[in-house]
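Thread amino acids onto this structure.
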C-alpha cells in the first residue's frame, strides 16, 4: 500500500533539528569519512607479506577474511534499520545513516582490494577461516535481527537490531579486532603492514561514529519505552556471552597457529579492552531508563565521538 505524506520536515512539518546528535555525526562523516581505500599505498605490504613464513601468512589472511566477511555482513544487513528510521520521519537520523551505509560499503572495498592485491588469495577459498561461532553471529543472529525490521519495525525490534549490530558486532567484535591490529602495530614499532594499518585507522574513525549512533539509538528507544529495558538487558547479556566466546576462541586459535606472541605481548590486553568498552557503553545505556529523550540527546552531545 502506498503511503501518503502529510508534510515534510524541512518545509514546516516540524523544526529540522540541525543541532541534534545525529546531525553532528552527519557533519563529522562529511569531513572525516571521505577517504578512498584505493588510494592507500600497499606496495610495502606486498613485500612484507611475500617474505613471511607460511604460518604467519595464513594467520594474517585468516584475520583479513574475518574482517572482510564481517564488513560485508554489516553492509548487507543495515538497510532495514535505515528504512525503519526513515518511515518514522526521523530525517536527521536517516541522513546520518546514509553516510553510515556508504562507509560500510567502503570498508568492504578496502578489504576486498587489500586481500586481492597483497595476498593474491582466491576469495572463494576464504570461507574456511570463518569458525562455527563466527558463522552463528554473522550468518544467523545478525541477519535475523535486522531482517525482521522489514515486516515489523517496532521499537522492540529496533532495539534488538541495534543491540545486535551496534553494541555487540561493532562495539565488541569489530572494535576489538581493530584494537588488536593497533596493538600488533605497537609491538612491531609501526613496521608491520603500513598500508593495512593506515586503512584500519580510517576504519576505526568511521566505526567510532557508528557505535556512538548505536548507543544513542538504544538509549533513545529505552527512554521512549522504559518497559523494554528487561528485554534489552537480557539481549545484551545473551549476545555478550556469544561474542566473548568467539573472541577467546579466535585469540587461542591465532596463538596456536603462529606459535605464540612476542615475549612482551599481553594477550589479555585485547580482552580487557573489549570488556572495558562494553561496560562503558552499558553504563551509558542504563542511564536512559531514568532519562527523557531530551536528556539522552544532551548526554550524547557531550560524548567525544572518537573516544565513544
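Threaded sequence (308 positions):
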Amino acid at each position: 500500500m502506498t503511503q501518503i505524506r502529510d508534510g515534510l520536515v524541512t518545509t514546516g512539518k516540524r523544526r529540522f533539528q540541525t543541532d541534534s546528535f545525529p546531525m553532528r555525526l552527519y557533519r563529522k562523516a562529511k569531513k572525516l569519512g571521505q577517504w578512498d581505500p584505493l588510494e592507500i599505498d600497499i606496495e610495502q605490504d606486498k613485500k612484507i607479506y611475500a617474505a613471511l613464513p607460511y604460518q604467519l601468512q595464513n594467520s594474517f589472511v585468516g584475520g583479513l577474511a574475518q574482517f572482510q566477511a564481517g564488513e560485508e555482513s554489516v553492509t548487507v544487513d543495515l538497510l532495514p534499520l535505515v528504512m525503519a528510521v526513515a518511515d518514522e520521519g526521523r530525517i536527521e537520523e536517516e541522513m546520518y545513516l546514509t553516510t553510515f551505509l556508504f562507509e560500510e560499503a567502503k570498508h568492504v572495498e578496502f578489504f576486498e582490494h587489500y586481500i586481492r592485491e597483497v595476498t593474491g588469495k582466491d576469495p572463494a577459498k576464504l570461507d574456511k577461516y570463518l569458525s562455527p561461532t563466527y558463522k552463528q553471529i554473522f550468518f544467523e543472529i545478525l541477519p535475523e535481527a535486522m531482517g525482521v525490521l522489514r515486516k515489523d519495525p517496532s521499537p522492540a525490534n529496533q532495539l534488538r537490531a541495534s543491540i545486535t549490530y551496534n553494541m555487540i558486532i561493532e562495539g565488541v567484535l569489530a572494535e576489538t579486532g581493530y584494537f588488536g591490529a593497533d596493538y600488533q602495530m605497537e609491538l612491531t614499532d609501526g613496521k608491520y603492514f603500513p598500508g593495512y594499518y593506515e586503512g584500519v585507522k580510517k576504519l576505526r574513525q568511521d566505526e567510532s561514529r557508528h557505535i556512538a549512533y548505536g548507543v544513542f539509538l538504544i538509549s533513545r528507544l529505552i527512554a521512549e519505552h522504559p518497559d523494554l529495558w528487561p528485554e534489552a538487558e537480557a539481549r545484551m547479556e545473551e549476545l555478550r556471552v556469544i561474542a566473548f566466546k568467539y573472541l577467546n576462541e579466535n585469540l587461542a586459535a591465532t596463538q596456536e597457529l603462529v606459535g605464540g606472541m612476542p615475549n612482551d605481548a599481553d594477550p589479555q590486553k585485547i580482552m580487557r579492552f573489549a570488556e572495558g568498552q562494553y561496560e562503558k557503553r552499558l553504563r551509558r545505556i542504563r542511564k536512559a531508563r531514568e532519562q527523557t529523550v531530551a536528556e539522552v540527546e544532551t548526554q550524547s552531545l557531550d560524548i567525544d565521538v572518537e573516544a565513544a
